[in-house]
Automatic annotation (TrEMBL):
InterPro entries: Fumarylacetoacetase-like_C (IPR011234), Fumarylacetoacetase_C_sf (IPR036663), Rv2993c-like_N (IPR018833). This is Fumarylacetoacetate hydrolase family protein. Residues 1-52 form the Rv2993c-like N-terminal domain. It comes from the Bacteria. The keyword Transmembrane does not apply. Residues 57-251 form the Fumarylacetoacetase-like C-terminal domain. GO terms for molecular function: hydrolase activity. Keywords: Hydrolase, Metal-binding. The keyword Metal-binding applies. SUPFAM superfamilies: FAH (SSF56529). The lineage of its organism: Bacteria, Bacillati, Actinomycetota, Actinomycetes, Kitasatosporales.
Length: 252
């Protein structure tokens, strides 16, 4: 099932994607996914897809693919390297990524994103799947030249528009071995697989939940494969995750 968040006639709602149509949900995505028998159906081209959730927090994981760590000259940490991206950095499909004036080195990072479906704390890896709503695509936009100077990565990872998510949440997906790709203006930049992760989805969420309560709608970014590279104003960047779809944004 694919859950969308969309705008139609200035009204924002959650819905279910049914073929090429969207059916609104009664109560949002975190309870029973009820669609009334008489619910309207909106053709997908007639609605604006938004970020599929509005996370209270986004937790991202660095260096979770060994080849990506190596391409930047970093070691793979023994424990997951976790950092926060603010909710204000989130944008949806088709929205513009803004290159701020304080960076000269803006990079793309294609990632599988996990959406939490139930409030949870101190999960074992085996308990994790029951607390996941589904999965979406993410682009962990990074001001690479600020990661060293800022140290806390607050601008490098958390600036406005630095967390595109979408186009929807896929609820039926096995995250173990999915293709994760980036294209910039049609040129393939990243082409990896979640099978290359150092820490699995279950391990990551178990580790994070040991320290922090996770709420419905929170998002976990699971790391990026090798091939990160620069983005410039005018570029169109597309992140694709197998079984989910394509997330496309333009740089301005």
């Amino acid at each position: 099932m694919r859950i969308v968040r969309f705008k139609k006639a200035e009204t924002v709602r959650y819905g279910i994607l049914l073929g090429n149509e969207v059916a609104p949900l009664i109560n949002g995505p975190f309870g029973l996914l009820d669609i009334p028998d008489d619910a309207p159906r909106f053709p997908l081209p007639e609605v604006q897809l938004l970020s599929p959730v509005t996370p209270g927090k986004v937790l991202a994981v660095g260096r979770n693919y060994a080849a990506h760590a190596a391409e930047l000259g970093n070691d793979v940490p023994e424990e997951p390297l976790v950092f926060l991206k603010p909710g204000s950095s989130v944008i949806g499909p088709g929205e513009n990524i803004v290159k701020p004036p304080y960076t000269k080195e803006l990079h793309h990072e294609a990632e599988l994103a996990v959406v939490i479906g139930r409030r949870c704390k101190e999960l074992t890896p085996g308990q994790v799947p029951a607390h996941i709503l589904g999965y979406t695509c993410a682009n962990d936009i990074t001001a690479r030249d600020l990661q060293g100077p800022d140290r806390q990565w607050w601008r490098a990872k958390g600036s406005d528009t630095f967390c595109p998510l979408g186009p929807w949440v896929e609820t039926e997906l096995d995250p173990a071995a999915l293709s994760v790709r980036t294209e910039v203006d049609g040129e393939t930049r990243q082409d990896g697989s979640t099978a290359q992760m150092v820490h699995t989805v279950a391990m990551l969420i178990s580790h994070i939940s040991a320290a922090m309560t996770l709420d419905p709608g929170d998002v976990i970014l699971t790391g990026t494969p090798a091939g990160v590279g620069p983005l410039h104003p005018g570029d169109q960047v597309t992140v694709s995750v197998e079984g989910i779809g394509d997330l496309t944004n333009r740089i301005i």
